[in-house]
Amino acid sequence: MTNKPPFETWEKMANEIAQFFISIETQTHAIDKLTKLKQGNRLFEDFWLEFVTWKELSGYNEVALVGLFKKEVYPALARKLVEIGQIRNSDLLDEWYEKALSFERLKREVIEEFGGRRSLENSGDRKKKLVLDVPR
Fold first, then answer.
1. Is it the case that residue 46 has pLDDT exceeding 90?
2. Pick from 53, 78, 81, 132: most CB atoms within 10 A?
3. pTM of the full predicted structure?
4. 3-state DSSP call for residue 61?
5. Structural contact between residues 30 and 54, judged by C-beta atoms closer than 8 angstroms
């Protein structure tokens, strides 16, 4: 008869111990920060760093974290992840992160190579305005 270790990995044990010692106030503060977090105009990497910091203290499970991640990243990025990247709610948060990071890096490479930072939504409005401003 073999004894099964209480934890599969060192990381899982460390997480269990950390959860045990995190105060209710710390966890409440982390949840508040995490639920109000938005990527906005920040680089994805900066957003992710803050997201990971608060996720570790929140005590949220994988399903809840994926749900928050989808709502908090830039909306166009979230759409790309689902439509082009074929990411699903059942996928792990790390999969969402990896795909989002690759999309964001590709977007920066395209902007660097071809110029411009104008979004597709704004480009249509600009064309209309330019047409209207042309003297007749």
1. yes
2. 81
3. 0.67
4. coil
5. yes
The domain spans of the chain are 10-132
Distance between CA atoms of residues 52 and 106, nearest Å: 22
Q: Which amino acid does the sequence have at 8?
A: E
Residue 13 has what DSSP assignment?
A: H
> Could you tell me the pLDDT band of residue 17, with boundaries at 50, 70 and 90?
confident
Q: What is the pLDDT of residues 86-95, one digit of tens each?
A: 888 788 999 9
Write out the two tokens for 3.
Answer: 């004894």
Letter string b/e over residues 37-72, b meaning 16 or more CB atoms within 10 A of that residue's CB: bebeeeebeebbeebeebbebbebeeebbbebbbeb
Give the Cα separation of 95 and 39 in Å (integer). 18
